[in-house]
Amino acid sequence: MIIRVTVNGTEFVRDVEPRTLLAYFLREHCGLTGTHVGCDSSSCGVCVVAIDGDRAVKSCTMFAVQADGHEITTVEGLAQGAALHPLQQAFWDCHGLQCGYCTPGMLMASYVLLKHHPNPSEPEIREALAGNLCRCTGYQNIITSVQQAAAEMSPQPVEA
Amino acid sequence: MAMTTDPPVQERHAIGQSLKRKEDPRFIRGAGRYVDDIVLPGMLYMALVHSPYPHARINGIDKTAALAMPGVKAVITGEDLVNAGLGWIPTFHGYDKQMVLAVGKAVYQYQEVAGVIATSREAALDAAEVVDVDYEPLEVIADPFVSMRDTLIIRDDRENKTNHIYHWEVGDRDKTDAALAASEVQIDERIEFQRVHPAPLEPCGIVADMSGGTGRLTMYLTSQAPHAHRTVVSMVTGIPEDKIRIVSPDIGGGFGNKVPVYPGYVVATAASVILGVPVKWIETRTENLTCSGFARDYHMRVQIGATAAGNITALKVTTVADHGAFDAVADPSKYPAGLFGIVTGSYDFPTAFTELDAYFTNKAPGGVAYRCSFRVTEASYAIERGMDMLAQRLGMDAAEFRLLNFVKKVQFPYPSPLGFVYDSGDYHLTLRNALDKIGYKELRAEQAEKRARGEYMGIGISTFTEAVGAGPSKLFDIMGIKMFDSAEIRIHPTGSGIVRTGARHQGQGHETTWAQIVAEELGLDPQNILVEEGDTDTAPYGLGTYASRSTPVAGGAIALAARKVREKAKKIAAHVLEASEDDIEWEDYKFKVTGVPGKSITMKEVAFAAYTNPTPGSEPGLEATFYYDPPNMTFPHGAYIAVVDVDAETGYTKVRRFLAIDDCGTIINPMIVEGQIHGGLTEGFAIAFMQEIRFDAAGNNLNTNFTEYLIPTSLETPHWETDKTVTPSPHHPIGAKGVGESPNVGSPAAFVNAVVDALAPLGVKHIEMPLTRAKVWHAIKDARAAASAPLAQNGATHA
Q: What is the rounded average pLDDT for all residues in chain B?
């Protein structure tokens, strides 16, 4: 099947097998290997991407053909050139990653969380990231990272 | 005069700073390069066929249907590999051999039976489905206590027709038995450490490349030990070592899982050799959990004796180990049970003895050091549970009992009764700090109040000592290769540099911490010290990263290589400063001429001179290599306290607080150390409450994916409180000891001790890990039933 998918602002028109998973479409057809695969059972979340800017999906659970006509944002689409997204900066500042394998999925799940909840509480962050496993960090610094990014992205209170 | 513009020396120390990680920019941009990200021209993909039976004769394999599938280039069976001389490979320490692909019979469920190579991942998986294997199921033994009866021989290929693999012992049996018999109080308990799996989020994989007509084999491999793997590949295949290049790119977590050589690597490599094109194989999660190295599976009997006053007199631990169908344990050659001898822990036992017998079963092989320095986790769990059981028997407070029996600070270096010499420590200080910081007295008061109200709250302590940094070459080798490690440092003319080591990080932060060591030793900017590991063509030979050995061994090599650079730099400084070398001293990160204020030169200036103004008659350039053979291991320790609430009606447990005070000697980067502790505690939490690879009696693996093998999420994982004491290692070049595994080694006992402490009023004495709600609920129910049983029966039960 021929599909048109916009990934990080670039349109990809590709002929794919109907069974091709979105994760492999991104990795193998679009050459975007930041999206990882870790479990084959939609448990680990290293494949999370954003669809149409406001939904986080596990791209190993979705067929590429289901993304036809949609806009996908992957970890490669977060930074604006040399300027890191506040989430990327915060993960770096707060030691929110170690081996880096879960990081793209964590960043994308957090990205969508902050779209809907600009100032999430710690329980809200833990809830939102419950579909993303990490074996290295124990989540604590990831949560701190999301909090820092939220603070950075929120409108600063205007001094009276 | 220059000194007045420099910041104070303390602030210029590169060691001890929470430098942000230099490796992070690529990971946060999705630009990490893991094995599955590598795509080579003409590359084919491999899928494996696995045995559905735990034990079955293979009467034949028909490839016809698979070969007829679209895109299929080859199907490789065990017989094909036997014909190529690759049917069997030596196991990790070389004492056993294992089938690459099942030949004659399969000996565990999911054992690799055939490899299918095709033009795409999907085509290979499709064709693997139709490889027709004629299996004849055989009787299965999935329990080592059944296996030891030898009613059925699992490994009939071996000369000795027995399921018994080996017996190992250390210590003084007679003296220990006598001391136990004479002890006024004793515990004699069975404690299990269940089979678990490291399960890094990136599965194992390879791209094997024999293309290009160069006659060289390049293996892009998820390898924690690339040099060791190169040597093993050369020894097994006969390919000269110079014709083999192993590249271990970014690794998505290892935790010991990526130390062994797995059948998939060998089959993909054979396929690349046969077909002359690159071949990629990436494990599925199910393959990872069912085939690649498991950990633990130790069944321990723990006996500890004490006086009525609580002074310990003797320790004896007797273990049955389930090794699965091949003896593939990842332990150094002379240590078949790893460093289990650390089982006397932090306590001053007058005598001790431990013995272990290992058996084959129809289960996957393994026995890797899962975030653990070779069976140290099993040993620490045994002693820390055992000490709590004995404190409970004595009616003593668990903290007071430990303080009474700790090895004292003045006893270091401390020769343990099982043969180690602990380098340094201050166990009393660390535990006392932990008790103060968590508010132990207040917590015990709260517990007493809650008990009076019928609420169950527990406080669990674990005060472990770990043996890491294998190790000294007189003791430690893998297949004869000594376990030293190495570093090569090159300083460029403009004062930046590169350091390469034989280690291979998988998230530990070497690209940052190694730069900090070099920067500290040479007075250079850590931001301009590049760290490179993982390519056997460029890195000096080393045994890799696992068992918390990188900082103790490779870290020592880096410091000493840097000091060699500094020695050479001193000669250059003398030349440039026109002074005698004897008058040059290294102070405040500069070379100075003794007694001549203001006459000094920085390392950066020396580096430039090394290439532009070399000392006449001596070798130009500024680089050094050092192979470090550590004189001893290092012995990190810690005091952990868990506070747990248990709902006695549902078995629900909630870790309310957890404090970890670690002593890992000199700390290179506090931020990274704290991160390692968070991660290790989370894996210890996982083992205590969730993780287990179980088998039914028929040998079926019941935990084959992440919906069945449970990894804690952000919801379950507790908030971690951390702190430190610092007792430098006296022999390590910078006093560092290693930390990555301590929290995983030390924490399981703290969790279990806390839950059992909570339920002690009900008469609960022990619950085997993982402490699932169902298990905790059953333990409560059984204890209540026993308590409400008729008196005579009750008396008999507790006689």
A: 95
- Res. B465 pLDDT band, cuts 50 70 90: very high
- For A106, nearest residue in chain B (alpha carbons): B28
Q: How far apart are CA B767 and CA B147, in angstroms?
A: 25
In this structure, CATH architecture of domain A86-153: Orthogonal Bundle (1.10)
Confidence of residue B680 (pLDDT cuts 50, 70, 90): very high
Are B543 and B420 part of one and the same domain?
no
User: In terms of Cα–Cα distance, which of B706, B677, B544, B750 is closest to B197?
Assistant: B706
| Across B238-244, average pLDDT | 96
Tens of pLDDT along A12-39?
999 999 999 999 999 999 999 999 999 9
* Positions in chain A whose pLDDT score sits under 70: 156-160
In a domain? residue B764: yes
Concerning whether B372 is annotated as a catalytic residue, the answer is: yes
Same domain, B585 and B653: no
pLDDT of residue B212: 78
Please tell me whether residues B230 and B360 are part of one structural domain. no
d(CA B129, CA B647): 47
Indicate whether B314 pLDDT > 90. yes
B385 neighbors B462 (Cβ within 8 angstroms): no
Cis omega (within 30 of 0) on the bond before B137? no
**pLDDT over 70, % of chain B:** 97
In CATH terms, the superfamily for domain A2-77 is Beta-grasp domain (3.10.20.30)
Q: With CB atoms and an 8 Å threshold, state whether B29 touches A39.
A: no
Which of residues B584, B599, B628 is at a domain's end? B628
Closest by CA to A35, choosing from B38, B26, B36, B30, is B30
Minimal C-alpha gap between A100 and chain B (Å): 5
d(CA B568, CA B592): 15
Phi, psi of B665 (to 5 degrees): 70, -150
Pair B623, B641 in one domain: no
Is A38's CB within 8 Å of B203's CB? yes
- Rounded CA-CA distance B227/B503 in Å is 9
Is residue B371 among the annotated active site residues?
yes
B604 lies in the same domain as B670: no
Question: How many folded domains does chain B comprise?
Answer: 3
Amino acid at B363: K
Who among A19, A36, A138 is closest to B682 (CB)?
A: A138
Active site residue B303: no
Which residues of B are less than 8 Å from A107 in CB distance? Answer: 28
Averaged pLDDT, B722-744: 97
Compare CB distances from B201 to A46, A95, A139 and report the shortest one's residue.
A46
CB of B694 closer than 8 Å to CB of B702 = yes
> Is the Cβ of B507 closer than 8 Å to some Cβ of chain A?
yes
The answer to whether residues B365 and B297 touch, using CB atoms and an 8 Å cutoff, is no
CATH of the domain at B360: 3.30.365.10
Domain encompassing residue B523: 2-32+485-628
Does the residue B161 lie in any domain?
no
Give yes or no: B741 in active site: yes
Residue B436 and residue B307 share a domain: yes
Per domain, the residue ranges of chain A are 2-77, 86-153
Q: Taking 80 as the threshold, does the pLDDT of residue B679 lie above it?
A: yes
